[in-house]
Amino acid sequence: MKTEAFSRTTRAERALVHATLLVLAALALFPFVSMVSTSLKSNAEVYRSAESSLSDALAPWRWHWENYPNALSTVPIAAYLRNTLFLCATTVVGAVMSSALVAYGFARIEFKGKGPMFLLMISTMALPSQVTMIPVFALFRWFGWYGTFLPLIVPSFFGVPFYVFLLTQFYRTLPNELAEAARIDGASEWRIFWQVMLPLSKPALVTCALFQFFATWNDFFGPLLYLNDPSRYTLAYGLQQFMDSFRGGKWPELMAGAVLFTLPVLLLFFFAQKTFVQGIATSGSKN
After folding, report:
1. How many CB atoms within 10 Å of residue 152?
2. Do the beta carbons of residue 38 and residue 46 sit within 8 Å?
3. 3-state SS, residue 41
4. Positions of E strands within 117-179
5. Separation between Cα atoms, residue 14 and residue 222, nearest integer Å
């Protein structure tokens, strides 16, 4: 009897949890569904939908697929995509490799002042970017990098504090015997890091790579601050050009551009979510 009552209680709790998650998921997906629906409507239908019921507002009366090619032809989307992918690739490589190298030093190598230096590095995460915006901009302008991709790329090759912290926690979970066996065989620290630690840290590295890809893909303020050549604009900054081009109120074309901008990120996370969750879980574990 107690077992049956416990089983019924467990099923009720699971049903309640699942129902809560479904409601929260629906709330989270509603803006995206509304954006997709708007992208398939006519401009007149968008304004009529504001006075309709929820179901009528979400369902297009007639599917206007031409909104997507119209959006693509308004701005040089191919050039924006090429610039964005270039920035994503370079910043991902720079941020992941530099952060992994620094994290290995904090996790596996003993040196004087390691604790205070690690604390100082972590404390920079609490420093708002607005505080350093003006001096950093002045520095890059003095270097002659204004108007180029360098201010958006070079900082990633000097490590990202959050990734350093994440990878440091991960490296501390790996058995010391692996590094000791490699040292007995005469391997240097660089060889241990490159041939032993990096292959074992694939989930954590993929997690950091995804974080950096999303950050670069969605970055609007960086290109706005440092790029002055329209041929170098990114997709996030290019969406502003959509707004300027469709200032007359062409919301379907604008939403079509927003869908095209959001879709690659959703697909990437969908296919990499298993490795992403695994990297987060293993980075938070302890020996």
Report:
1. 24
2. yes
3. coil
4. none
5. 44
More confident residue, 139 or 67: 139
**233 token code pair:** 């604009």
Q: Which CATH superfamily is domain 74-283 in?
A: MetI-like (1.10.3720.10)
pLDDT in tens, 89-118: 999 999 999 999 999 989 888 888 888 899
Phi, psi of 94, rounded to the nearest 5 degrees: -65, -45
CA angle 213, 214, 215 (to 5 degrees): 90
Give the position of tokens 């009552």.
5
- pTM (predicted TM-score): 0.80
- Sort residue 18 into left (φ over 0), alpha (ψ -120 to 50) or beta: alpha
* pLDDT score of 4: 55
Q: Do the Cβ atoms of 76 and 235 come closer than 8 Å?
A: no
Question: What is the C-alpha to C-alpha distance for residues 179 and 66, in angstroms, rounded to an integer?
Answer: 59
Distance in angstroms (rounded) separating the CA atoms of residues 28 and 26: 5
Question: Exposure of 41 by Cβ count < 10 A (0-12 exposed, 13-18 middle, 19+ buried)?
Answer: buried
DSSP string, 141-207: HHHT-TTSSHHHHGGGGG--HHHHHHHHHHHTTS-HHHHHHHHHTT--HHHHIIIIIHHHTHHHHHH
Checking if the pLDDT of 6 tops 60, the result is: no
b/e 98-133 (16+ beta carbons within 10 angstroms → b): bbbbbbbbbbbeeeeeeeeebeebeeeeeeeeeeee
DSSP-derived 3-state class of residue 109: coil
Which residue, 146, 131, 156, 158, is CA-closest to 223?
146
Here the tokens at position 262 are 């959001």
Supply 63's token pair: 């599917």
User: Dmax of the chain from CA atoms?
Assistant: 78
